[in-house]
Amino acid sequence: MRFLLSPSFRAGQLAAVAAACLLLLGGCGGSGSPGDDIVFTSTRDGDYALFGMNADGSDQGRLTDEHGDTSTPAGTTFQIDPDYSRDGSRIAFASARTGSLDVYVMKADGSDTRRLTTTRGNQSQPSWSPDGSRIAFQSDQDGDHIYVMGSDGKGARRLTNDPAPEIEPAWSPDGSWIAYSRRLPGSEIRELWLVRPDGSGRRRLTARAQAAYAPAWSPDGKTIAFASKQETGRFEIYAIGSDGRGLRRVTFSNEDAFEPAWSPNGETLAFSRGGSIVTVDASGGHPKVLTDPDTNDSSPDWNPRRHDGEEQS
To answer: Which domain CATH number covers 197?
Structure first.
């Protein structure tokens, strides 16, 4: 459940995770360069790193040649939280390679990596604005809160003055809203909220969700998928209208399901479950397991310019 932990908690647990990760050295071989329909995080090489694959699970492979030093906590969390830019040319991610977590960006082929944040604490969960000019992210430098900065790392500012912990920002396709998970003060309950990129118009999206995480906008901006445990006591993928109406359950799993991500055509949701990346029809149905659970995979994100191996027009 790495993907549900705050950066501050993760930083304190990395030494233990490193030892476990060394056991997960299996992999799904590809032919040549990895597929670029879906990027995801995997520990199959020992460190948390970014991998790519086709929409059907074929051509899985690591995106970068450099590796984190798994004998150190910082080196173990080498690359996590990937997010494609809307033009598919770049991937933002978080890395603790220098000590604490910071936001980085690289080209989609894994080259030209640049560090964007250098402030104290942990910065993670980056989310691109649709025009590629800004990136929202979470930071724990003054408690868990949402920040926005330029895509060059400049001009970072906190989005709201709310004292409640706020994590996992997700920028809407039209750029007008940022969804995020907010913990109610004095409670363990988390709900999804929306806020304008300038910090105005803040409003609650879900009610009585108990624990709502990882909001993901559909390509048309009408629906938000998220992970929550409401009916069964375990996490499932749900979807709700961006107006807060029409809540429905998408997955019916025997294990916790997390981190939904929409395909570019809005027909499919990828998510993580039991160490695998899984896809399911957005309206529900029988899920398809794309990766081996022994490779400990999580945090899928679709290339907005790709689907089923074909570039979008």
So the answer is: 2.120.10.30
